[in-house]
Amino acid sequence: MESSDALIARFLALHPKTIDLSLGRIQRLLAQLGHPERRLPPVIHVAGTNGKGSTIAFMRAILESAGLAVHVYTSPHLVRFHERIRLGRFGGGQYVSEDRLVEAFRRCEAVNGGEPITMFEITTAAAILLFAEEPADVLLLEVGLGGRFDATNIVGKPAAAVVTSIGHDHAEYLGTTLQAIAREKAGIFKRGCPAVIATQDYREADDTLRAEAERIGAMPILVGGQDFSTHEESGRLVYQDEKGLLDLPLPKLIGRHQFINAGTAIAALRAAGFETFEAQAFEAGLTRAEWPGRLQRLNRGRLPEIAPQGCEIWLDGGHNPDGGRVLAAAMADRSERADAPLVLIAGMLGTKDSQAFFKNFSGLAREVIAVPIAGQIAARPAEEVAAIAASVGLTVSTAASVEAALASLHNYVWDQPPRVLICGSLYLAGEVLAANGTLPE
Questions:
Q1: Is 219 in the same domain as 302?
Q2: DSSP symbol at 89
Q3: Where is the Mur ligase central domain (predicted)?
């Protein structure tokens, strides 16, 4: 049988010669498929620069803890394309099987008839087809890029539309100002449907999102820090909105930024009509949520065996300036609880603001070991990554791979075992999980 990888390679050949940001191509394809987008379970649509995946992970864990079947669509994948499509089952969903994925791809390819279409558009159509034909209680749908013209924005009336933290990324498509980026993300808001806006780091983004939600006629409009909030108190997470207060355990996902993501997830579920859950569902969801490659600790597998004994190894795909900021804050928090020298093993793409990313670690990281990202044409050479890190005052070296970087730690004399953060790219995170033998499940 032809593989999904072979079909994806064929899809790439259909890419339009010029990209016009529009929904025309996917609307045409979905119409030819019989409009599966009209047969979806209730949809919670999620856009944003950072925090989308974590917010969805919290929502999925809470919904599944309440006994519901949950479809999930996310991107990009870390190791295998199948990670993008989770089909809901009672007792917990599973990634789409190769057979079902190939079947959906073939149906979309046949109906498309060789017309120009992007890989993301045709694979999103395949996902929509699968979600429409498999019963579930809810679909958590993550935007791929932007919002207004993203291929996922074919949902007429979502149960809720959520925008997580806005920051600078993908300037070539979304614009160079926070206002322009926020306007694109706000394109998922729909008239008469709930709009949930996470607590924002930037006033310009917050103001733009609120204004766009009001202009579109979203209802109700729920704003983090105003209509709902979360804070830590005595080692617990306290969530509050007009419906009341929830006293919850701290999230399993590491970092204070996850308090905001958890609160946004709860607000979105309540806005979408899932407010009658027992408190146990929210408690279990926060403590069960997992999101691979996002401050994931590697306790087992091949890579910890290469590093010095007692070394902590953390993995995160964060790659933009704000991602670097929350990563640095999480590592600083970790250091306050248990001090250890911090070493970054970093690989980055040439399209990312590497200097702004590394600035967050100035005075915090003992050293940056720059590595290449295998198989990525757009990746910066390790020497270039090292030079950028050095330009903000960090001590640097290079290694041929993550494995070589970890092995090189044996050449140092440490007062105590180091804390290693492998970071800078989701592509690198996927490469690391594959090398470690701990694939996402």
A1: no
A2: -
A3: 46-268
